[in-house]
Amino acid sequence: GQQVMQIPQYQHVQEGEDFTTYCNSSTTLSNIQWYKQRPGGHPVFLIQLVKSGEVKKQKRLTFQFGEAKKNSSLHITATQTTDVGTYFCAGSNAGNMLTFGGGTRLMVKP
Amino acid sequence: GAVVSQHPSRVICKSGTSVKIECRSLDFQATTMFWYRQFPKQSLMLMATSNEGSKATYEQGVEKDKFLINHASLTLSTLTVTSAHPEDSSFYICSAIGPLNTEAFFGQGTRLTVV
Questions:
Q1: For residue A97, what are the contacts with CB-CB under 8 A and spacing of at least 6?
Q2: Within the 39-98 window of chain A, which residues sit less than 8 Å (CB to CB) from chain B?
Q3: Do B106 and A33 lie within an 8 Å CB cutoff?
Q4: What does the buried/exposed string (b/e) look like for A11-43 if buried means 16 or more CB atoms within 10 Å of the residue's CB?
Q5: Is A82 helix (H, G, I), strand (E, B) or coil?
């Protein structure tokens, strides 16, 4: 079945440093979504990418979808303590089924 | 955005008892809901897909007789952990695909502790 791998598993950064998490699927995706889960909370939808090579930005967050639609990345510029949490990618290749990556837990030192 | 409400948020039960967790889509109809289990600092593990009016589809390794899923209406799915044991202690989260059929909306999660 479809597998979605996400790296790194953990990342410690100093506040102000950049952060990137990468997501790779074993199969071509119809779309990829990104979610953020704050400590003690539940995952919250951030964005969806559909087109090959698509790039979307949300303030300091930049999301990319690879040309082959099998990989994606989330880049945070100048991290802040409010960015702390676990970032999950989730790939979809048919219907409503989402396959989640393992998540990247971001810790930001003030 | 769409709202998915999950109840209870926390529950402590004795070994051998059963616990029911409810997941409701408050402002939209959800023909399909998903149940996940999350261990501390780990990813979401899909347990089963709940389909309104039909049997749930369980992932490999998930005991369907232990984790009973009922999706009796378009806005409610329930997960019952039967004969709970301490190893069932975990964070259980439900989700539903929103009305625009794009992103998933998650319930607040239920932290189950079996003592």
A1: B49
A2: 41-45, 48, 86, 88, 90, 96-98
A3: no
A4: bebeeeeebebbbbbeeebebbbbbbbeeeebb
A5: helix
Please name the amino acid found at residue B105.
Answer: F
Place of tokens 């990345």: A73
Q: Per-residue pLDDT tens for A32-85? A: 999 999 998 999 999 999 999 999 999 999 999 999 999 999 999 999 999 999
Does residue A94 register a pLDDT over 70?
no
Contact B106 A103 (CB under 8 A): no
CA distance B44 to A100: 7
Tell me the average confidence (pLDDT) per consecutive run of 10 residues in chain B, 115 residues long. Answer: 91 97 92 90 88 88 94 92 96 87 88 97
CA distance A85 to B98: 23
Angstrom distance (rounded) from CA A53 to CA B13: 49
